[in-house]
Design brief:
Elements lengths: L13 E5 L2 E4 L4 E4 L2 H4 L8 H13 L10 H14 L5 E5 L2 H16 L3 E5 L8 H5 L16 E4 L4 H8 L4 E7 L12 H14 L2 E5 L23 E4 L10 E5 L18 H16 L2 H17 L4 E7 L2 E6 L4 H9 L3 E2 L8 E4 L7 H20 L1
Parallel strand pairs: 3-13, 5-6, 5-7, 7-8, 8-9
Antiparallel strand pairs: 1-2, 2-3, 4-10, 9-10, 11-12, 12-14
Bound molecules: 4'-deoxy-4'-aminopyridoxal-5'-phosphate.
The site of 4'-deoxy-4'-aminopyridoxal-5'-phosphate has 14 residues, from α4.
Length: 380
């Protein structure tokens, strides 16, 4: 059988990883500033993570959600404490798309409405409602096209209120910081307006923190810079440091009932253990603070480079724009300097999504290599 060929691949085969580094099968060492797409939060193969997962696997790996799994409560308590959302409820699932799909579905169940507002350049996943709320027609199948989802301009409160006045919106979904769209930060004022309009017009605010959450921004959630408390928050990527696990944080006023939501794999022993290990390490090693300090340091260094037109970001979720397409620059960083970076839907943009325990020396290494690549490319 052949693999269904949907991913463009680098010609690299990693066989080992530790901290912010990967090694390929030829022994070449790479600096990972991409984190497997913002997934590696506490660093590759962190000893606490490996220990907890290995121990758990030898006890029990899986049983269904028809039995008591106390690890789910331990995870909910630790997540509540670290995120500041102690009074919210947690629904566990397996991926970012699934978390968003359930969040939108829950909003619709809650207020009986069926329209969702999302914003330009959004990315919320590839399942039916999530992909319809994603501003990329190329990945929306005819089946998923729906009039129930409206894509409105980003950071435009007036346009939003105009639509919400019709009193038929179930939810407004927005990324804490847009990732795939090129690291675009919603203004605090816009986020506050979304919450105000949702409360005023009977809708729910959903913050998609799948990429920007889990300490990456220098706060547990990126939306926390605005002081707003969304009704629903979705999490995935950094939550399990590579183990598939995701969640929906749900306001205490939203009532559950049996069978309202469900999933076979969600909240299994291994997923909970991975997520608990991640929270333990984030807390013990003060990684949210590190993301803030090292992220600011990296942005300062990037802003000194003349060829860089704009730098956007919070903590270790950073994007910078060059004058033209940067595919060649990323290729050279990878092949000649052995540094992984991320792309975005904006061809001129490079995304930096490293582990939250990245060190300043590693930033220096990157800046030095980037300067060399940019100089060589601009001189050509
Ligand atoms: N929301 C956001 C903001 C994302 O960046 C992504 C993944 N790029 C998703 C949702 C979908 O997550 P997953 O691939 O785990 O379904």
């Amino acid at each position: 059988m052949r693999l269904f060929d949907v991913y463009p691949l680098f010609n690299i085969e990693p066989v080992k990883a530790e901290g912010s580094y990967l090694w390929d099968k030829n022994g070449i060492k790479y600096l990972d500033l991409y984190g497997g797409h913002a997934v590696i939060s506490i660093g590759h193969s962190h000893p606490h993570y490996v220990k907890l997962l290995s121990e758990q696997l030898s006890k029990i790996g899986f049983y269904s959600n028809s039995v008591k799994i106390p690890l789910q409560e331990e995870l909910a308590n630790k997540l509540g404490e670290l995120s500041g959302y102690n009074n919210y409820q947690l629904f566990l699932c397996n991926s970012g798309a699934e978390a968003n799909e359930n969040a939108m579905k829950l909003a619709s169940f809650h207020n009986g409405r069926k329209k969702i507002i999302a914003f330009s350049k959004s990315f919320h996943g590839r399942t039916s409602a999530a992909v319809a709320a994603t501003d990329d027609p190329a990945i929306v199948a005819p089946l998923n096209k729906t009039d129930n989802i409206l894509i409105l301009p980003f950071n435009d409160a007036a346009a939003l209120e105009e639509e919400m006045k019709k009193n038929d919106i179930a939810a407004v979904i927005i990324e804490g910081i847009q990732g795939v769209g090129g690291v675009n930060i919603p203004s605090d004022e816009f986020l506050r307006h979304i919450k105000i309009f949702c409360d005023k017009y009977g809708a729910l605010m959903i913050a998609d923190e799948v990429q920007s959450g889990y300490g990456r921004s220098g706060k547990f959630f990126a939306h926390q810079y605005s002081g707003v408390q969304p009704h629903i928050i979705t999490i995935a990527k950094g939550m399990g440091n590579g183990f598939p696990v995701a969640g929906v944080l749900i306001h205490p006023d939203i009532q559950p009932r049996h069978s309202l939501l469900g999933t076979t794999f969600g909240g299994n022993y291994l997923a909970c253990t991975a997520a608990i290990a991640v929270l333990d390490v984030i807390k013990k090693e003060d990684l949210i603070q590190n993301a803030w300090v090292v992220g600011n340091y990296m942005m300062e260094q990037l802003r000194k480079i003349k060829a860089i037109k704009a730098v956007r970001g919070l903590g270790l979720m950073i994007g910078f724009d060059l004058e033209g397409p940067c595919a060649e620059i990323r290729k050279q960083l990878l092949n000649e300097h052995h540094i992984f970076t991320g792309a975005s839907s904006n061809k001129n943009n490079i995304r930096i999504l490293p582990a939250l325990n990245l060190k300043k020396e590693e930033v220096d290494l990157f800046i030095n290599s980037l300067n060399k690549v940019l100089t060589a490319t601009l001189v050509k």
